[in-house]
Write a structure and sequence with these properties.
By secondary structure, this protein is mostly helical. It is 52% helix and 0% strand. It has a domain at 20-56. The longest helix has 15 residues, at 29-43. The chain is elongated and about 50 Å long. The relative contact order is 0.10.
Amino acid sequence: MKRVFELQNTYQEINNLNFFFDDSPNLTVSELRSKLRRYKNNFNIKLGINRLSSID
């Protein structure tokens, strides 16, 4: 039961973070810049990461 409680707490912590994932495939540089600009204006994002799959 303790593990379930820990899992629920961890889920809540992650759920409260301001993460947004956009998995649009094959964006051009101009499309990516446009999306980031729009996200910055609408959601005040502080960081954009491209190609998360390349991070080791």
